[in-house]
């Protein structure tokens, strides 16, 4: 951390800031330029709140040099992490492909789709039981009954279940029934939920918020990890920009960025990113080419009659075709489907 | 709602979509242009999910004409709403000025500040007890003890309390202790929390999410109102943009926009918008000039030693001076401080 | 400028970077933290390209401490600048109000509007002769004939003319006919145009680009000033964000920010910001309250039949009414209309 | 185009708008819902300015159904366009790979790089002679001498030249010396430049502006095409968002979007998008996987000493390695390198 003093800061003011830095347990390296004095903090700055220093009148700005996350930081954990889910691993050579409907609707629906995606090579079954919807008048999910149907599909196919949690009050059910607990984009900074999940030992799929920076995503992972649960998988699903042709703008640069900054695995959700089924295939291919550890894709056997988000779901036939193409691209990356 | 069929949609496909529209309880007005056929839906479209129609291959796009919110919509409620809090009203001629520290720290701190802001004309006391922080290593608030200190300050000054809730598990405490329950920007789409608050009868201060559109803010208000609680106050607090000189970009255009679209009162938070104490004064004046129903402002007696966000807090002296200027601007708007 | 070396940079690599810094004419202050080595550059860094250093494998990142603009920087020019235009001044106690139609259409139109806005207290006449339009099929302006009509209106009313230049090929005409030459948002980084205008001595009204940071706006001012023309007036006119209710999002925080960073005057364009005539009044009031040095407002005698942008123009009656309100707010700021 | 009348619009007001629509040469399809009356315009609406109608008090909003571009529109030109450059074609089965330095620096530099990229399979040589730089104090390019050096490199290698034009005053030189004239992101809406290029018959590489929508990019292509020059190649190079880890956010969704909306070829610039050399490889692979018609990549033999943008340039060795991987991915798309 570097404190840039105002050009007109007096020696007295500079000494006041220096005393504060020392009281925070850091040493100081001072450097005086033509217009600015710089005070460099040497020591463990990860728990120091930059605002504490910035709130002084004599301080021009505070520059943060080291990333504010530790457990998620590749600097302190150079090897890639693999997250183990039963007999599968997320973040290893084999890509993790999570596929299934936006919402669980009926036993027949989820069974059909689960078998179809498994046959095409999916390694996890996704499906929403509790649904975050912009409108209170939209279908809100089958809730607990949805979890039951997912468990039936898992029993039939062996596919581990990925599904979204919306509230701390459901944690016990999720820990019992679900293999990977998803935190949706809108809850990425629901810190009470993150803290509660940090106390479980379940793999957590943490989706990037619509307007969250990569650093904020890693700070939310840090919340879970600081609680004791290091089984975090990150997910890029599009960010909000001025461009409205697609629902969100898929930020594929985030994949190599996260790979550089963190050791955690990261997957891509091409369905929510674009919100357009005909874009899922090209974006999925691009995600594998850019180095993602997997995908989460919406697949529905009858998109035109889906209870939600039919417009971004692909059919099992298209999914099957897509998987074949992905396996060629995966090889270029020395990965496999 | 208008369905635009693809240029090459066949008569059979058009008839299929027409049948679907009729099954949803709407009449159809058809209009054929040079390149596109349009199907207009006439009837109550507020509960129809546009994606249901869009997921058909023959549909080019679906255009929504009417706003998807009803209870928050000025169209069905032309008069301004006033929210009553004890002997005060939010949304009436007198502006609501909520002032106080970012976090409640000590009894002495909250008492001092409460008396100071009251003396300057503040009408509500703000102060955080449960704090949403980006880093798990930052101060997380005094929690329940913070609520106790706020109640002491209320007892002393008579100022009603505004403070933020972060989880459904605290609702009982908040209903008992707090006068206005704040939902923070990061929880604007925490739908479980919104639903739970909809079942109380407490005034809710709903802050706009960092990347939420005005329409989404009104849809979140609709969640609370649909549950039965129509006491919603909206708050603009800056949105996330590419400009990084300020923490967020205060969107003051949102005030006249919300006034046009909705009957609910709307206030402005200049402290979180800029994240810079020296911008609070100009932005507060602009907020009153643009027609806001009030302000929520961070005031701290010792910003350089505040436990959080000192950099965006103004001193009681500056607050006092600001209030005098605001009262002149309020008059131009036929309002009063 | 501070160079942050990679955690694993070898002594040899660090020495290589040090040698490069010295070759650029700077001294080095070195500081070694737990994980990073920092090399601080002391000396004139304004002409050093940070990328030159960043392109080295051993460099983690380069942090810029001092603003890259000099002539526009308040640090080296603490007093506010006033730009003199004939007998008027922009940036002084009296606010500059530039009003008139989007496009010059006919002699009668421009004469009528010019007289109306003058009667209400406008101090400059704005009007487009060369029009940047998104579509090649839209009205492109009266061009040279438009300049002639503006001159007639100036002769009649005495109002100096503000109008937009789109190409270096028109500079001679503009220098002769126009009092303040406007550079539109889309040309803010048309560097050839900026350089050419730097060689004139005309006041330049430089509008912020739709996606330009405050720093980039000041760098574009620097282009003009570096050429020898220090008569630059800045203009905030809305930036592009995810919110689509308004055409752009007016960034009023930019006004106090620019006032802090630079000595140049800055005005606000509420018409282009919102793109909605009924928002012009509240945004204009907010702009004066936030501390702008003036406004540029579209006024049309018959908005519903305007040849362009009628939707964002207010009538002379509304403008007259607005001016009265602005004068009260200006007083709060110790300014006058 | 659909005009939505205000809920309280009177019959007289509705009739006034109808008369206006008829005067614009369109027929009307009227549709009355519970709250809104809709007037659909049938006929050629591409030259009608929506603002003309929107500026009426009785109009709630105007919804545009058909895209405002014609010549660039796939609707009227269903087949992909190929742009012929000598013996090469852009937009055909073989991908177009444009490679070379950010700036032309010396004869030796450009010769070395040109031979290297040709040997690796590049099909065009890129290199800047006129450079748009944010700072007036940065290197501005070798200008005309740069064009001479590019011609020498072309003579030696046979690679056609792609380079950026910044001003209408250089058009004659560019038409004579250059094979593909590039319009940079900052000039995408420099309409005078677009009009002038529309009168040449040279292939134009049009880069998307930092904050331009896909529709605006196509409208700028329309400017060139409306002038008579239909040889336009589009380029996605990253848009400006809140995420600052990368210089811009590469919007790869734009590729399938443009392919759907337009028949023009579209390539990707991974170098300017990220601004980080180590991201060029993954983003280039993703661009080919998503369906781009080619790439424009910065390659420099000594990035650490490049005169500009060294931080985003890859070495010839890395480029060579990248080309091999791209050829496998291209095959999945039924394309070739």
From TrEMBL, chains A, B, C, D:
Keywords associated with the record: Transferase
Domain DAHP synthase ferredoxin-like positions: 1-67
Domain of life: Bacteria
InterPro entries to which the protein is assigned, alphabetical: Aldolase_TIM, Class-I_DAHP_synthase, DAHP1/KDSA, DAHP_snth_FXD, DAHP_syn_2
Name of one Pfam family that matches: DAHP_synth_1
DAHP synthetase I/KDSA domain location: 91-328
GO molecular function: aldehyde-lyase activity; transferase activity
Transmembrane residue ranges: none
GO biological processes: aromatic amino acid family biosynthetic process
Keyword Ubl conjugation: no
NCBIfam families attached to this UniProt entry: DAHP_synth_Bsub, PRK08673.1, PRK12595.1
Name of this chain's protein: 3-deoxy-D-arabinoheptulosonate-7-phosphate synthase
Organism in which the protein naturally occurs: Clostridium collagenovorans DSM 3089
